[in-house]
């Protein structure tokens, strides 16, 4: 492989420090590399040195052999110099509408697409360090972006744009992940709470209610600490302090003032989830079409709140479908693993599709 052999020789000379100036980099690295990649380096209509741009000069302009329009600008600095040079080259290429700009000091090759969006440093497609990357990767990148026939045919630009989109996508994902994680913690959905509850059960043998998990996450967010001081390290014994806290919380919740007032009668189911189940039963009895209308609404991103098939309540989790579902009335099932906030949301959805007359008869408290 001629290109691979050339790169190996350049690497050896870089290690020996044989390129002390910009001219040495140009003659010893850039031009030989272009030659190996198929460029007619002795045709000054195609590979133009000291190309003039509005009174300034770019070290090399690589042009199309037919229309002689610049396709790539290359700016050269001596090994170890890079600060500011890429910005200047970027400005040249951007002003002239040149599709690609390359900055190199012989060791590092930075490939830019000036016409794309973002800050100039965000428009870099790839940074190739000949001493850090293996030879195969160096050959692949130089041929992908800089091989003569590929540049002239437009294939090199297509490849560079595709790689740029991947880089931009990865950058956007990286920037958004902290926001998404914070959003999940600030407004945790039931699936996240279930995962936390399952992990607690794995560690200590007791499974907390989702409200306990929700309050834990809220406390973490409020205090900006890994584990709030009121939540001790989770032990692996069944006599853990966390288990005692969960049991105490269950007793408090059972004695809380959850109630439903409907047509002059007061119901105290004993917990938020039981209050929701009782309310759905009352609405189903008073309005025969209620459950069908509610089931047709958009529910969670993956889960259905009620369904005729309990597996729809917990997609891909048949264990939860069996353990955490309850029959509202014969033929209709509802999940019961929800936080109090989720329960309130579901109830308000339900009350929003009943008649005003029926809605006026209902009061509830969680």
State mean pLDDT (0 to 100 scale). Answer: 83
- For the secondary structure, the number of strands is 12
CA radius of gyration is 33 Å
| Count of all domains | 3
- Total of DSSP H or I helical runs spanning 4+ residues: 14
What does this protein look like?
The chain has 14 helices and 12 strands. By secondary structure, it is an alpha+beta fold. It has 3 domains: 2-170, tt1808, chain A (Alpha-Beta Complex); 190-246, no CATH class; 259-365, Replication modulator SeqA, C-terminal DNA-binding domain, CATH 1.20.1380. The strands form 3 sheets. It has a 6-stranded mixed sheet with strand order 1-2-3-4-5-6, sandwiched between helices. A 3-stranded antiparallel sheet has the order 8-7-12, with helices on one face. Strands 9-11-10 form a 3-stranded antiparallel sheet. Helix 1 runs antiparallel to helix 2 (22-36), helix 1 crosses helix 4 (135-146) and helix 4 crosses helix 6. It is elongated, with a radius of gyration of 33 Å. It starts with a helix and ends with a strand.
Outline:
With 366 residues, the chain is of the alpha+beta class. Helix content is 48%, strand content 16%.
What attributes characterize this protein structure?
three-stranded antiparallel sheet; tt1808, chain A; 48% helix; Replication modulator SeqA, C-terminal DNA-binding domain; 366 residues; elongated; alpha+beta
């Amino acid at each position: 492989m001629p290109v691979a052999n050339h790169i190996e020789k350049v690497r050896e000379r870089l290690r020996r420090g044989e390129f002390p100036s910009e001219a040495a980099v140009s003659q010893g690295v850039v031009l030989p590399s272009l030659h190996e990649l198929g460029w007619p380096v002795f045709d000054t209509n195609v590979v133009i040195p000291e190309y003039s741009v509005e009174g300034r000069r770019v070290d090399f302009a690589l042009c199309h052999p037919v229309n002689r329009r610049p396709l790539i600008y290359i700016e050269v600095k001596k090994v170890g110099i890079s600060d500011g040079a890429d910005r200047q080259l970027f400005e040249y290429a951007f002003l002239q509408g040149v599709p690609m700009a390359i900055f190199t000091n012989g060791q590092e090759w930075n490939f830019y697409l000036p016409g794309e969006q973002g800050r100039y440093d965000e428009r870099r497609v790839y940074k190739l360090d000949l001493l850090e990357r293996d030879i195969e990767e160096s050959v692949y990148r130089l041929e992908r972006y800089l091989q003569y026939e590929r540049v002239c045919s437009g294939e090199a630009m297509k490849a560079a744009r595709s790689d740029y989109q991947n880089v931009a996508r990865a950058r956007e994902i990286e920037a958004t992940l902290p926001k998404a994680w914070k959003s999940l913690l600030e407004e945790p959905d039931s699936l996240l709470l279930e995962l936390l509850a399952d992990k607690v059960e794995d560690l200590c043998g007791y499974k907390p209610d989702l409200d306990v998990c929700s309050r834990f996450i809220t406390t973490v967010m409020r205090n900006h600490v890994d584990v709030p001081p009121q939540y001790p390290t989770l032990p692996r014994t069944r006599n853990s302090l966390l288990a005692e806290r969960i049991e105490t919380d269950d007793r408090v919740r059972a004695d809380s003032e959850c109630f439903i007032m409907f047509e002059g009668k007061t119901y105290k189911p004993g917990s938020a989830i039981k209050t929701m189940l009782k309310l759905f039963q009352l609405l189903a009895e008073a309005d025969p079409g209620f459950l069908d209308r509610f089931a047709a609404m958009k529910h969670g991103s993956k889960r259905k709140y009620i369904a005729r098939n309990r597996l729809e309540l917990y997609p891909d989790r048949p264990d939860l479908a069996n353990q955490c579902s309850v029959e509202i009335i014969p033929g209709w099932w509802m999940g019961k693993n929800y936080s109090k906030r989720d329960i309130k949301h579901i109830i308000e959805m339900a009350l929003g599709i009943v008649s005003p007359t029926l809605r006026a008869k209902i009061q509830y408290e969680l």
